[in-house]
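Expect chain and fold; see below:
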Amino acid sequence: MNPLQHRFNPQVNKIAVSLIRQFDERVSNIPDILKLTLGEPDFDTPEEVKRAGIEAIEQNFSHYTGMAGLPEVREAACTFVEKKYNVHYDWQTEVLVTVGGTEAITATLLSILEPGDKVLLPTPIYSGYEPVITLAKAELIQMDTSQTDFVLTPDLLEATLEEHGDQVKAVILNYPSNPIGVTYTREEVKSLADVLKKYPVFVMCDEIYSELVYDETHTSIAEFIPNQTILINGLSKSHAMTGWRIGFLFGPKELIKEIVKVHQYLVTAASTISQKAAYAALTTSMNAGEEMKKEYQVRRDFVFKEVSRLGFEVAKPRGAFYIFAKIPTGYIQDSMEFCIDLAEKEQLAVIPGIAFGQAGEGYIRISYAASFEKLEEAMRRLDRYMNR
């Protein structure tokens, strides 16, 4: 045992590699495993975007950019969200180019949180927020939405804000959501904003799936409460660019001025080559997500129908590319045990709901970011398992 391991920041001992990654690694060595685990588009990055990246390499764009990112990328990002979501930002002072949405989340939370602060978030929810809150010595307060079809209601939000009072520093929202695919109508977003504007809290809104909304138009909460909102978005899901690691952080200039300090010491700046590709994504390939969305919708309808037929209870997703399904009575109810058993007996890997908080226990998350052929085979394997 290395004696230095006891000299780490004790907060590090309170976090772990996400259960999503732990489970994915655990089952990856099972022969013939079919994985519907990670939230990663199976499409290729658009050709125009790839060419822009190649040209950037050939033209030796291999040096640092400014901390906030290339001016043309920041301007294009502001234009993109203005045209798409009717939110307005000054590209010179109100946007940062980040290393994916993950770094945007980390830079934001480390900038605003102090020991003892409380952070509210609806659960089940993506597992990447809680560890950063823990590192900042703040406290996570979960708002269980499992009794309201996984929709955060204004009443629950206001009751939680009132209960915890001045200790609440921030509220985190994520929609369309991972792991459920829940999103909000314009009226629902406005109702949440009407509650939040009564309280002196930061609203960190992760809208990374905003281009993958079915049957309606995405509404950003930043449209209603811009002075409180730190808006996070990026190109990973909309343009199948997970590996390029480009995210965007928008907010009032007074807030961005502080967050850029933390951003600088975390990463200096985002990859210059990736930023050149991002410019193409935001301009010549602005609507790349539309074709992907059409295919995702076909896949969603298929998987939703199949898991419902097999007895799972599912809230039909209105965005993103996940099915969050309640394990039927009579089967293993511990979500981790269920998913391990499924992987070992039928070589099908899906994510246990406990990975998204206690409110997710008893559920599984199926990613339909996979080819239709793979999804058909996955449903055959699930059918065999449920009928054993």
